[in-house]
Amino acid sequence: MTTLIERLAGWATDLDLGDIPDDVQELCDAQRQSVRAGIAASSGDAAYRKIASAIDDSLYRDACASMALDFDDYLCFGHTGHSAVLVTQHIGDEAGANDHERLTAQTVANEIGARLGGACLVGPLNGQLWSFIHAVGAAAAAARLLGLDASRAAHALAISLTNAPRPTVPGFMAPDTKLLTAAEPIQAGVRAARLAAAGVTGPLDVLDHPQGFLEGFAYVPLRSMLGGLGTGWATKTLCIKPYPGCAYLDTTLDALADIGPLDATAIKRVIVHGGALTCGMDELSANYAHDDPSPVTVTFSIPWNVAIMLTAGRLTAAEVNQTWLATHRSELESLRHRVELRHDWDATLRTARAFAPLLHLAALAREAGPRTWLGGLRRVRREHRSVSLDVAGVAKVAKLIATGRVPIDRGPSRPWDPEALESFRMTFPARVEIIFADGRREEATADIPQGAAGHPRIGPAEIAAQKAPQKAKGPGQDAPNT
């Protein structure tokens, strides 16, 4: 029997440009624009400049710049652009690949990376901390561009996951090391492809073995999330951020932008109502985003970002800049203490409903079994204390689903259902209330971020085009208007 790694590699090497839908190709174009814009926007970032002075490797430097301001793109289960775009660019240049070969390699990295993130959906890491997707994505793209056959490509993927990266929260949330999050795994993935090209072998059962990768990176391994290749395209869920910062901030900032420019001195209080993902992000950042803001610490904080938006009337790379933050520190400090974030169960449920069609819940419940789900959910509650979770209740529902007593098979027939992907809406609802000193109130809401999959007016391509001019200057220079 073929292993999961061999199936992934077989699909990656067999994929032809003609197999890739036109809309997926167009989204890959937007993704390339976005990554280039993110790199340009980070040119004045102090942490990036230190790294660039120390490292003489253009792929590594670009990966750090792409990560620096969190001004990136993301799919439903992972921020794949750092590796999918940059490996395609750099290794494509080395291999003399044409545009068709580069596009195919980029698609391969996106699809495999998102699936591995989905397989680890219930686990110790999430979002950008799923940095292992850059190791496997880089290996897949490099293997394709270097012309490896299916057998050697499988070994490249296996090698990339043998010593997979497992970043720490302290290393990501505050210091300069955040910028290395994609760069280190990308280098490991490219090396894996080169090693496989030379005949080095890896553990082809690394995703199947009970002591393999998934056991270390998922509390509830969801191997069926590694299927659907060539029928359901994860790239169709591409979202491109309009602001430098975590995606869970975007609807709050969209709502503030809808209200319009405000006199910050007249504001008594700002109340943001958001879902569990937004609240969890903010609670995690609160331990790091203290009185000395930096481009790393503010990008996960609702109070700091609301303060920046109200102070500047916008939020671009020019504001997420060490010099600007230091210059406006007293204004920001005053405003952020007037911002309150409240959890809204309706917002949480709307996000859950938006993601549910991408999963076949009954199949996933049966795949792992009630005992595994219960143990996994207990670990989530224990290790992610910002998540409010009724473990017993969820486990009971999972058991009923798994035994068929709660029939939900009328939804998607499998994970990565094509129709579900086509209609997917990236939903992170936020409601912003502004209370003025004179008693007046203003309110605005946003469900789908601008630039996200399913936004009714402003999709990924539009935001990618808008991001291009956002370039910040170096330390000590005035940031340009964008």
From TrEMBL:
GO molecular function annotation: lyase activity
SUPFAM superfamilies reported for this sequence:
2-methylcitrate dehydratase PrpD
Give positions of region: Disordered: 443-482
Return the Low complexity bias intervals.
464-482
Q: Which Gene3D superfamilies match?
A: 2-methylcitrate dehydratase PrpD (3.30.1330.120)
Stretch forming the signal peptide: none
Q: Which Pfam families does this chain map to?
A: MmgE_PrpD_N (PF03972)
Q: Which InterPro entries match?
A: MmgE/PrpD_sf, MmgE/PrpD_sf_1, MmgE/PrpD_sf_2, MmgE_PrpD, MmgE_PrpD_N
List each copy of the MmgE/PrpD N-terminal domain by range: 63-217
What domain of life? Bacteria
Family to which this protein belongs: Belongs to the PrpD family.
Q: What is this protein called?
A: MmgE/PrpD N-terminal domain-containing protein
- Native organism is Mycobacterium spongiae
